[in-house]
Specification:
With 260 residues, this protein is of the alpha+beta class. The protein is built from 5 helices and 7 strands; from the N terminus they run ααβββββββααα. The chain is 43% helix and 22% strand. A 6-stranded antiparallel barrel has the order 1-4-3-2-5-6. The protein is flat.
Amino acid sequence: MAEQTLTVRNASGGGQPPSTPAAADAGGEGGFGIYKWGRGYWVRVLSAIAVGMLFLAGAGWAWRNLATINLPAKGYTVEVAVPADAKIATGSAATFVKLIDNKDFPVGSGVVETFTPSPDGKRATVTVGQFKAEGDGVMRDARRMDVGAGDTVVRANIQRETNAINKIPIFNPTYLQGSVAGLIMLSGLVLIYTFVGRRPSSVDFLIATDEEMRKVNWSTRKTIINSTLVVISATFLIAGFIFVWDTILKKALMDWIVRF
């Protein structure tokens, strides 16, 4: 008895990965619940990559811009010039003033949390917490720090450098940057999974697009090269024609103007 061989062709079309056993068992769904697994493969993959790049760019934009956000301050570090052998105890109350026409105007007050003198004893780095502004005063306007009261007050001039006063934010801005950027990327993943992998209407559209793309009669390499050469040649010919006539007309016009 002659044997008959039955050849089964892949109905999903060439260039697509074969369906997995999971797809057959789940009625068209593959791994991770992907709708119509293996159909419209390249269009779906490229669509996911394009959308993913957009969300990745958005996450990068958010990361860069959130780095400059002005978070509330929980304290300040201040570079000051201190009198010789001056000692400022932690927990001391500090008053900050600005000078206008050699007159003192209060900016705010706080509590000294740390006092770190320099090796030569002429400068120190002071960490101030619990800062309370006086009226509309802002810390960056302060030019002197007064610690103590009465005869024991220590007057320390704040250095003139632009980074002499640094704000200590209530939390590290990196946490905010990472949270927002991560949320944007997570939203992108959910969107891609929903519209490229799970939602029947959008998946069927991508599959139909893939099938139509397979019907396109793509030009050969030789045809593309010849067409490109024709376009370049025509461009130079038209440019030369316009240049010649522009030169002739300009000369004729100038001669006519000179005569009159």
